[in-house]
Design a protein that fits this description.
homodimer; three-stranded antiparallel beta sheet; 365 residues
Chain lengths: 365, 365
């Protein structure tokens, strides 16, 4: 089935939309959260766990997979869905962000990015064409265009230069598509209103299948993130999915949905779990803390999660104290369930037009 | 329900028995294999996984649990079953073996073992009474008597001394029982036929609920293990369960069942999995080897396992190469499934009296 998107409902008090992404690996209810499966696995959990948690779209990383095990191998084995045994939809990033944050000896030119693998130092060259080709080999449902994401903080000139290169590359991404390959364009422009407007105009003039807000959640304080999202989201076409890359905390997701964003990914729930931090409606708590030593039930989340409700906080604290790998797994399942429930609550709040109650529920999360 | 054991069938060609253990946490079909959950968790897997794999009895370690999180805490929280959310039967060892292999500054006397915790150096004293008391606090279905297990190699005098102390302690274990606490006695005697006979006679004269063959699989070559098992198993009462501690390879289990053993535990399937070794009917293979790089199905085991059959050997190889924690988990599930299937095959071979075919199937495993 070809890629498609439909808006099915709206909030009366803000720009939140309820929608459905159509992909050849099933439909995805939006607003949605994508767990991050960097190396073709969401750390500590299997595809059967993600299915049970109800996720319909998972993100994986082009940079990591192209280095190991390699896109050629995954293509020969039947594509990324088959490789990781994930029957539902997949999205990959372009690899650009990881090249800038992980790779060595980067040299960016208008042609592309030359860099050395962080694994073995081998010299590689990533271009818009190559990124789209790799993502085509992986066979994912949504490919992301290669852009240049400037670091934070950066000067206005640097933000403008990265934006200009992003615009230069945008049509090259589209031209490299395989038949039927859905590609999202990315809007840059940093924290500068005029650049964001210029970038939205340039990128949305091209026939991408969806649009992402890039350059957010790259280290800036949250109070700078909200105005950018409030500005950038409504600049994107109403009839295409909008994806806020790398965000974020539950309350940040609630805010961005109200600004009109449909899709999210973030390493927080999975990374925090490995550092024994678990989400509750009162904020994140340290699962290793003595306060849980005799807590004979799950953490208080305002709900129960079938993923981990059979285990007590006392037990998971013991697992972390004893360096048992099951601790990180149970905390990961808990946090992913928290995010799955958050997105369910968000979609219900749009359907039932009860946004103030939703905002109140997650204000501390 | 009180603890009980019933022999339900026998092989016509050897001493193998089919039986049922009755416990207040359900019945256990024997011959059975107990996964090792040292710190109240079988490493990388949850209780729901063990239930799905069909295990009915899990072993945990008194030494580890008494140090962390402590038997008092587990008792206050409702016992070990509730703590690890395991509704089926549990067995704990006495802690003696771990004190001898892990603890510091051990001093064994007729009274008990004085030692320092390997975690924080605190001085502790383990006696038969204390071991049985701790296991009673944990609330397990089968407690093991504290014995003295000599290392291998050791002199005949050392084996005899350890045996004598084991006999001295045996009645003290029984005297320390709580109402209804089932306790197994342990036979020592090393590799010496006369000592094994003497030990079996002494220990089985006491009203234990089952009997274990100790001091096997402590470092001796396999060719020395088989004669000890062949000798020791038939010396144990026919109407009580027989447990061979710490064994072993699949072929060793097949051999011991044929000698009349009903119960097994071993860290091999779980420990090997964490070292990327997986069981197949052709023996263990290294899941990281290049031979699996493009193997687009599960490892060949003569069967499929629902636990891991959806994942290819190529994928699990990638997980290990990329240091992803899911690799150890999937290999652990695979190996535990291999052992679960082994025990199922063994019980079927007794029921159908087809032992030679079973032996042939597992001769290389």
């Amino acid at each position: 089935m070809a890629f498609g998107f439909e808006v099915k409902g709206r909030c009366s008090t803000n720009l939140a939309r309820l929608g459905t992404l159509q992909t050849s690996h099933g439909s995805v209810q939006t607003p949605c959260f994508m767990p991050v499966g960097t190396q073709a696995t969401v750390k500590t959990v299997g595809s059967e766990d993600l299915e049970k948690l109800g996720f319909e779209l998972v993100l994986s990383n082009t940079y990591h997979l192209s280095l190991r095990p390699g896109a050629d191998l995954i293509e020969r084995l039947g594509g990324l869905h088959k490789f990781m045994s994930w029957p539902r939809a997949l999205l990959t990033d372009s690899g650009g962000y990881q090249v800038m944050s992980l790779a060595h000896k980067r040299r960016v030119s208008d042609e592309g990015v030359r860099f050395q693998s962080h694994l073995d130092g081998s010299e590689l060259f990533l271009t818009p064409e190559r990124s789209i080709e790799i993502q085509g080999q992986l066979g994912v449902d949504v490919s992301m265009a290669l852009d240049e994401c400037p670091p934070y903080p950066c000067s206005r000139d640097e933000a403008a230069a990265a934006m200009a290169r992003t615009h230069l590359w945008a049509p090259r991404n589209l031209a490299a598509r395989r038949e039927g390959q859905a590609v999202f364009g990315i809007v840059q422009g940093g924290v500068h209103e005029d650049l964001r407007r210029e970038s939205a105009e340039a990128v949305t003039s091209l026939p991408f299948d969806g649009f992402a807000i890039g350059g957010v959640s790259v280290g800036e304080p949250t109070e700078m993130q909200y105005p950018v999202v409030d500005l950038a989201a409504p600049l994107l076409p109403d009839d295409k999915p909008r994806y806020l890359m790398g965000v974020g905390h539950p309350r940040d997701i609630v805010h961005a949905v109200a600004a009109g964003v449909d899709m999210f990914d973030c390493v927080l729930p999975t990374r925090m779990a490995r550092h024994h931090c678990v989400y509750t409606l009162q904020g994140r708590v340290n699962a290793k803390n003595a306060q849980w030593a005799e807590h004979n039930g799950p953490w208080d989340t305002g709900s129960t999660f079938s993923a981990t409700e059979r285990y007590s906080a006392a037990y998971v604290r013991h697992l972390f104290q004893a360096d048992e790998p099951l601790g990180a797994r149970l905390a990961t399942l808990h946090n992913l369930a928290f995010y799955a429930l958050l997105m369910e609550d968000i979609r219900r709040a749009i359907t039932e037009d009860t946004w103030p109650q939703l905002e109140a529920k997650y204000k501390d999360a």
